[in-house]
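As a warm-up, study this chain.
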Amino acid sequence: MRHWPPGPARRSMTFSKNPNTVEPTQPTPIPTIPACPSPICLCAATPSDLDIDRTSLLANTTPVYGEHVVICTGKNDWASKIEDEKGLNAFRGMRDIMKRYMKAGRMATLTSMGPIMISNSSIPPYSKLSTDVTISTTSAYLFPSFRHVFDMSHDSSGYENFLTNIYKDGHIPQKADGSGPFTRRINDIVVLICGHGGRDKRCGILGPILEDEFSTKLRHAQFTVGSLPDLKSTAHPAAQGHANVALISHIGGHKFAGNVIMYIPPDFKIKGTLSPLAGKGIWYGRVEPKHVEGIIEETVLNGKVIVELFRGGINFNRTPIRL
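Now compare it with the structure written out below.
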């Protein structure tokens, strides 16, 4: 995880809303439940030798960010510092562009929504143009814009085009020949779990266990799970009953493993009514396999935040969620 601009140089800026996504009504206060219900079904065991901090306060331990850029690498782990990954490296490319803009005093022209958090993920890159997505293009998920960008040129000009255009009107201008990059709305539940073993073994061990547990329990709850097989249209909507579960790189707070971010799409409904958590990102810490069933039941299906696991979150309008 990295934030740009870093440290004291961060700015608080106003963001112009994405016209392609309808902002849900923001209920106040957010519904909560004090503790995670005990599971009814069998679940995996939590390894006993992990040094998890179970005493420090979890509340308000998330970074403040305006957009989370989740790069689709298709890999399950990365170097301790993801900028050190060999080969084509979208994170390193975006970081270098941001550094250049900061040095020139042009950061405000690059993005208008405030600090950007960038993570690598195990979500595979997708291409509308080619079956070979390992050489020339890359993909990214954007939250809370809830946009999937694909066929982005895997080079400096592609990264700069992405960073300077995606936030202005909800899409990146296509090339003159009609080729990529393309965007689509994200209508599926997205569960991101820190599994960065190259950085810290706690997340490296617990992350894949939680990934399997979330995938299994979401299927039990009648969700389809995995990458969508049909993205032939840039406006193709995912089924509301679909979920994407993936591992991501360091997001801070390894001592609170397992660390989970749940992004609930802006139009997600519960029994025909808009979810109180629609359009939000909810961060949980100290998540164990025994909590997964309760998280799906309470947070996804009932629209409630579980207080004992809650680290923080982000609203659709990019304001932080604090309880």
